[in-house]
DNA sequence: CCGAAAATCATACCAACGGGTGACTGCGCA
DNA sequence: TGCGCAGTCACCCGTTGGTATGATTTTCGG
């Protein structure tokens, strides 16, 4: 800000000096004041525009818009959470299918294993999650960020 | 924009005319060109500043900063969804407790009714949701926006 | 005040779920 | 090569969940 004003004054002074030099050196006719005037006007107008633009800066208005981000779409399964609880990939797979509302038999048919296998996976899963029912397992897994 | 330029030119012309009139009318000494120069400089600088501010001031740059807001906290249970499926308040209550991982007995103790009552509520709920298991009911209710 | 919807409870039955135990097979790592 | 882990499967048994049917009471709008 102060630099601008100083620069402005300095330029004005230099211009005046230049004009005087021209006047004395080349003895330009007195009535050519219009030429000087126009010159000065153009120069200072340009300077003024530059100043105006520089001083006022860009009026940047920041609008903070709260956008509700669908948690499901931004969900990324990170293995860190899974391994923190000692849950294997297969167990997580069964957990997801359970959360989708499938029965043990349906899960078994879906991943091509026997129902007993699904049961043992589920049992170990409940143990690791500290759940006694599948609904409880789903609930805690959800709040742990294990599943969307 | 165009209006500004026109106004600018007009002002310049008027100023020149005024200066000439002053020059001829009062016969001001030739070497007082500095005074004229300073005058013109000041005027046009002011004009330029005004122009700069006016011209650049218009395009207000709006920066939209999207703030991610947890979707879960913005959840509001609207009765429209519930009634569209013909689900009663009590049934929704049982649904929420089911989704929290409670057993029928726990729900019964929680809302001070018998386990049989919870069972009948649950049965009707499954019927309305087209679910055969509680996990499935929770899953569909969630995707329907019935529960968070 | 009356009737429909909602809420409550019971009984019986069968399917699904969950716990416990034991066993077998690959696979990677020491 | 042996050990541990993940995955697979089986059996039994008790608990829980879900369906069907029927009944009573409460609530609420016309």
Account of the 3D structure:
2 copies of one chain form a homodimer. The first copy, chain A, is mainly alpha-helical and 148 residues long. Helix content of chain A is 67%, strand content 7%. The first copy, chain A, has helices spanning 2-26, 33-56, 79-84, 89-99, 104-111, 115-129, 134-143; one strand at residues 60-69. The model of chain A has no long low-confidence stretch (mean pLDDT 74). Chains A and B meet through helix 1, helix 2, strand 1 and helix 7 of A and helix 1, helix 2, strand 1 and helix 7 of B. Chain A binds a DNA duplex (30 and 30 nucleotides) through residues 88-91, 103-105, 113-117, 119-123, 126, 132-134.
Task: Report strand % of chain A.
Answer: 5-15%
- Poorly predicted tracts of residues of chain A: none
Structural class of chain A: mainly alpha
> Quaternary status of these chains?
homodimer
How do the helices and strands follow one another from N- to C-terminus of chain A?
Answer: HHEHHHHH
Number of helices of chain A: 7
Summarize this, please?
Two copies of one chain form a homodimer. Chain A contains seven helices and one strand, in the order ααβααααα. By secondary structure, chain A is mostly helical.
What is the fold's blueprint, element by element?
The structure is a homodimer of 148-residue chains.
Chain A: H1 2-26, H2 33-56, E1 60-69, H3 79-84, H4 89-99, H5 104-111, H6 115-129, H7 134-143
Helix pairs in contact in A: 1-2, 4-6, 4-7, 5-6, 6-7
Chain A binds a DNA duplex (30 and 30 nucleotides) through residues 88-91, 103-105, 113-117, 119-123, 126, 132-134.
